Amino acid sequence: MNTIGNNIKITFFGESHGSEIGLVIDGLPAGIKINEDLMCFNLTKRRPKAEISTDRVETDQYKIVSGFLNKKTTGGALTIIIENKNIKSDDYENLNILPRPSHSDYPANIKYNGFNDFRGGGFFSGRLTALWMIIGSISQQILHSNDIYIGSHIYSLKHELDTPFDMNSDDYKEIVELNKQFFPLINTNKKNEMYNLISNTKTNLDSIGGVVESKIINMPVGIGEPYFLSFESYVSQLLFSVPGIKGVEFGKGFNITKYYGSEVNDQYKINDDKVTTLSNNNGGILGGLTNGRPIIIRCAVKPTASIAKPQQTINLKTRENETITIKGRHDPQIVSRAVHVINAVLQFACLDSLLYKKDVLN
């Protein structure tokens, strides 16, 4: 399925090496003035930076082809396309019979009887995450007008660690500052160490992964539609649609298993006539519903699958073992790009979930 959403439906189309990729957004209210400066800036943040990313740089120039008049939404389906310009499809010759390790090539070949577009991964490619930046930007401007803020940072890059979010703080200024950064860190002094790690990895023709940590503040209490559209369920489903995401956790996540209930239960208190909790170990979600506390989410991003080292694979035509050396332009890490995509996914997830309560948004 290329379509998802409940109150706002989005459809992605296109492939990594096709002529264009595109997005259809259905259900946006009429009369929204889209902040195109914000959209362009967010697209720029996701774009690769040569010293730490792939050498393939697309300008991501978009064109709005429907649902938009006089710089405002019309209420019809908003359709946006982005042209692919920097394509080198010859780098992917023979990948329909020599599947790349840790890529979708082999299972996609079987699923689609060999007719799948294997160039750059086709529609499994991270190229399509540019579309998330568009819907994320539109969602972000609506959420900001309702004082809801979402920010993400590079929590870790292999063994290098940033300072984690304060799970109990709802200070929006930290989030605003993170959203200005191309390589978002709470402790910006860690940037040089992480850049050196990326540089050494690239020199060694290898790749690394990491963890992205996100925070959502000022979400109203009671957002989520149990059972199957609980806030955790829906957010997780959307996050796992981002290529390279191998794990999602909320609050203390897996580490919560190391404690007694008496140590991690989030006990209630009244503060200035408002209900709050003494701690936030559950990360702002209880029973699949938001509880008003900061929502904390971490995503594990795997090392980039495409590396230039020789690796073992199979020949689907001859049914023999072979060695493959992957050509092309690839990222030594995708964490610094995925962090912005994750942010965009969360923006959409929050907006779509909030719209179940029509009186929540201004």
Explain this structure.
It is a single chain. The protein has 362 residues and is α+β, with helices and mostly antiparallel strands. The protein is globular. The longest helix is centred in the C-terminal third of the chain and has 20 residues. It has a 5-stranded antiparallel sheet with strand order 1-2-3-7-4, with helices on one face. A 5-stranded antiparallel sheet has the order 9-8-10-16-11. Strands 5-6 form a two-stranded antiparallel ribbon. The mean pLDDT is 92. It has one domain: Chorismate synthase, AroC fold (4-Layer Sandwich), CATH 3.60.150.
Task: Describe this protein with a few key phrases.
alpha+beta; Chorismate synthase, AroC fold; 362 residues; 8 helices
The proportion of strand residues reads 15-25%
Sheet bearing the most strands, described? 5 strands, antiparallel
CATH superfamily: Chorismate synthase AroC
Gyration radius, in Å: 21 Å
Topology, element by element:
Elements lengths: L2 E2 L4 E6 L5 E7 L9 H11 L15 E5 L1 E2 L2 E2 L4 E6 L21 H7 L17 H16 L4 E9 L2 E2 L10 H7 L12 H13 L6 E8 L13 H9 L5 E6 L10 H4 L3 E4 L2 E4 L7 E2 L2 E2 L4 E7 L9 E5 L4 E5 L10 H20 L8
Antiparallel strand pairs: 1-2, 2-3, 3-7, 4-7, 5-6, 8-9, 8-10, 10-16, 11-16, 12-13, 14-15, 17-18
Helix pairs in contact: 1-3, 3-8, 6-8
What's the gist of this structure?
By secondary structure, this protein is an alpha+beta fold. The chain contains eight helices and 18 strands. The strands form six sheets. It has a five-stranded antiparallel sheet, covered by helices on one side.
